[in-house]
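Q: Sequence in, structure out?
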Amino acid sequence: MLALRAATTIAEQLWPGTPWPALVPGDGLPTTEIAGDFVLLDHLGAAEETWGRDAPLANLGQDWWVFACSGSGDGWLLSRDQRQVVAFLDHSAGPDALPQLLGIDAAQWLQLADLMAQLEAAQDQGLALAPQALGLMEQLAPGLSAQYPYTLS
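A: Exactly. Output:
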């Protein structure tokens, strides 16, 4: 029932006419909740999150920028280089928070967000598809299911 979809397909559904990957500061994308823990920020929200977080060890603004947030206040980070590496920033670590590399890039993050949206919709229908989601995460990037910061139920 769950499926990995191409990032370009997901982007076209969410933001018609916008190519992917187009994830750079000032890209013009609106704040979009893709899934509960995957809220893509517009450029102003990303700037506020990047400069407003108390995580000095994470080198926010220098090495990383916060491009998305979770529903619980965690941050999704994007490297400021051309590789567009994605990391996770646990808000509960406070000033000691460090980027947790996930082994994915921005396009794969969008695919992961879409997969989690599918899982949430399935759970709303009473379906238990967490094992399938974990398997698809491994197809997306080997080791991702172990690095994923949330527990799937």
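The chain has five helices and six strands.
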